[in-house]
Amino acid sequence: MRKRVRQELADLLELPLDISLDLPRVVVVGDLGVLISNHRGLIQYSPEEIVIGVGRGQISISGENLEIEEVSKEDMAVRGVIKSVEMNT
Amino acid sequence: MTFKRIGEFLKGYVTVEVRGKNPERLINLCLSSGFPIWDIVRHDDKVYFSISLSKYREIRTLARKSRCIPRIRKRYGFPFFLGKVKKRPAFVLSSALILAVLFYLSGFIWVIQVKGNDKVPRDLILEVAAGEGLKVGSRKAYVSEKSVEEALTLKIPRLSWAYVHFQGTLAVIEVVEKVRPEMAGPGDVIARKDGVVDSVLVLSGIPLVKPGQTVKKGEILIAGESGGGRQGARGNVTARTWYEVRQEIPLYRLEAVRTGKTMEITVLRLFGREITFLGMKRLFDWYEMEEYPVKAIGEGSRGPLIEVLTRVFFEVKWRPIEFSVEEAIAIGEKRGRQVLERQLPSTAKVLGVTCDTEVHGSECVVVRVVASALEEIGELRPWPEEKNGGW
């Protein structure tokens, strides 16, 4: 219920949803890399799969030779051969 | 090392190997503590990542919390380099010494280059420069470019300009030599040819002739003052001069007349060489020749490559044709004037032309064309070397 109110408010004020609703923003660069903003930390990491916690659930990236190029409190950059990016809410 | 890592490189960073059951937790702990980490790679059960040196000390407690064992695998950056240097004082000292020696030696002149001299010998320039301190092995700081330049232009009068500059350990002396006009050295003004002096203009020296005086070729017109001043003579001497041309014109001339006898041969010309066939080889004593091409094949640089042509010889006899005396005189005068025109220098001003003729019986006419002109006859004859002071 609270979520819906916030979403409606954000729509009304035309605010970006990722900021107002604390959602992740995912940028996929071809099959070379994924940039995730507003993440909540690393849940699982292996060269084949990376699971990242986000505001409402998890994002799992699968591929080959996955590396975390850079990670800070807000952003995470994943490099490697990206096969799929999945959102589990 | 990428560009954005330069800052990290200066501060120093390490690649950490983490063993443990839950390295993800360590990473998350680092993140929540605000330690940026990068280049996270997993190999089997070990995770490697890079973290800046100052933060590494703090992750030990975090590692204990996440039950991981961190170990430094590689060290990068300036602080580690400094550490290495501190261990090798001899290395630092010797490199500093080399730099100092290099700096000291670069203050010397090692090579001198001379540019722009053509007639002035290089050794002379170097000698004068050495007199002012500019020589191989002297220190640049003690050499004044300006005084070397001044000495060069003062002591070598044949130089009009000098410029000294340094390029590292190379000293460059650039000079420009004086260019004398193409003029003979000091001497006397002598007569180039016979004539009657019309006017004398003396710029320097002592005039020895007066207007109206007849002079011979080679006579001194204006003498230079060879005494103390060694001042050469300069001046213009105009004189009336005469040019004479004789033309002998015979009263007849020979003209070739064809007798009517002809001979025809065929010639094959191959690459410029001629092969004569079809026809006699013996020719007339005097003949005129005409050629008619028959066939030409190919095109070469000097006409066709293969050519067939017919050559016709016409026998001729010489027949004298007589002139009248007037005709002969007119021809002689015309030719005489043409020859005279070629003889007269372009600077001479022609005052008048006279013709006289002699008739030698019925044989020939001799025409004599004489032109009188006003021209400059003065010519500078330089004194022998010892007299003009080695100019």
Helix percent of chain A reads: 10-25%
Distance from N terminus to C terminus of chain B (CA atoms, Å) equals 73 Å
The top-level CATH class of the domain at 3-82 in chain B is Alpha Beta
Helix content of chain B: 25-40%
Percent in strands of chain B: 35-45%
**Overall structural domain count of chain A:** 1
* Class inferred from helices and paired strands of chain A: alpha+beta
Strand order of the largest sheet of chain B: 11-9-13-19-18
Count of DSSP H/I helices of chain A: 2
Which descriptors apply to this entry?
heterodimer, A: 89 residues, alpha+beta, Immunoglobulin-like, six-stranded antiparallel beta sheet, 2 helices, B: 391 residues, Alpha-Beta Plaits, Ubiquitin-like (UB roll), five-stranded antiparallel beta sheet, four-stranded antiparallel beta sheet, 8 helices, 20 strands, elongated, Spore_YqfC (chain A), Sporulation protein YqfC (chain A), Spore_YabP/YqfC (chain A), YabP_sf (chain A)
Q: What is shown here, in short?
A:
The complex is a heterodimer of chains A (about 90) and B (about 400). With about 90 residues, chain A is an alpha+beta fold.
Task: Describe the protein.
Chain B: Pfam families: YqfD. The complex is a heterodimer of chains A (89) and B (391). With 89 residues, chain A is α+β, with helices and mostly antiparallel strands. Chain A has a single domain, classed as Immunoglobulin-like (Sandwich), CATH 2.60.40. Helices cover 18% and strands 58% of the residues of chain A. Chain A has helices at residues 2-13, 17-20; strands at 25-29, 33-37, 39-45, 49-54, 57-71, 75-88. The longest helix of chain A has 12 residues, at 2-13. In chain B, strand 16 and strand 17 form a beta hairpin. In chain B, helix 6 packs across helix 7 (145-155). At the A-B interface, strand 3 and strand 5 of A face helix 2 and strand 2 of B.
